[in-house]
Amino acid sequence: MLISESSEDDESSTEMMEVDDELQEAAAALCIGVGSFSDLPEIPGFAHFMEHMVFMGSRKFPQENFWDAFLSKCGGESNAWTDCERTCFYFVCPKGAFNKAIDIFAQFFISPLFNKNSVDKEIMAVDNECRMISSNDNERTRSIISHELVERGHPMAKFMAGNLKSLKEDPERLQVNVYEKLHAFYKRLYSAHYMTLVVHSVDPLDVMEANVVKTFSKVPNKYGSNIHYFCRIKNMAAVAVVGKVVVVVVVVVVVVVVLVAAIVIILLIHRFNIILYLPSEIPKPMFIKPPFQERSLNKLVRVIPMGDIHKMEIIWALPPLMEHYRARTIEYLSILLGHEGKGSILSVLRRK
């Protein structure tokens, strides 16, 4: 999605933008349809850890803190977050620094370094975030509800934040190489066909489009090119007429050809980092059962807070509403429930 603030019909507006061009802000956000639900079973919190490691340099800009230093110098900022089903990265900076910034930003998804020296440091950063969350009453309540009420076996019931134990201590005990898993996770899931990019700038749309295509077209698309390899052996009954010797020769030749072809394909995949998908392996949306079953509903959960607070929360389990996002269903219900004027739920409760 490209969002431009410029208007060819408004000359005064254009002149104003030309004057303040260097002061205008521009922004970009890239969202990947891969989140904590995709954590490796043996490494809880891995998607969150991956989010931290992505910003640790690229082949084109290998310095670990280059991105932060660049944004700090130009007055910009960036951040990222990991949700259950997506991970989003974003930044804001002055318009004058945007072309350079978006190039640096794109390289994180084109050729991230995953510097081995950064692994322990970022594990500690994730661990610190987890400790902060554990002392936050809202996050503690969500965690308790997920652990106590969500159906066992559902990805929402698992530990997703990540900490020192899940990212370092347990993998070391199980002899799991976290660094190698980073590269494998990136190669498998950080693909252009899972990504959505939004760019906001004062530039005309055609200029923005050209810049985005030039910069982000290099992001690998690992969906594959629908390349299929088939090997068929003709009806053996017909071959039997010629004789058993011919059958043996044909089978041997076919086996040799298949083995040679397999070796060549493996070498090409290893050399050019190609990922091929057979028809049955093409990624499809995963539909899972709802996290809250009927036996988990109509429950009262009491949580002892860390702070001196008294609060009641009412939680509804709703079906997926993504396909209705244009109707803003949740926002509509939120306004009705949160309204404080005459005739509102709050006014009725206060009268009682």
TrEMBL record:
GO terms for molecular function: metal ion binding; metalloendopeptidase activity. InterPro entries: Metalloenz_LuxS/M16, Pept_M16_N, Pept_M16_Zn_BS, Peptidase_M16, Peptidase_M16_C. The chain crosses the membrane at residues 236-269. SUPFAM superfamilies: LuxS/MPP-like metallohydrolase (SSF63411). It comes from the Eukaryota. Residues 22-143 form the Peptidase M16 N-terminal domain. Its cofactor is Zn(2+). Keywords: Hydrolase, Membrane, Metal-binding, Metalloprotease, Protease, Transmembrane, Transmembrane helix, Zinc. One of its GO terms (biological process) is proteolysis. Residues 179-350 form the Peptidase M16 C-terminal domain. Belongs to the peptidase M16 family. This is Nardilysin. It comes from Elysia marginata.
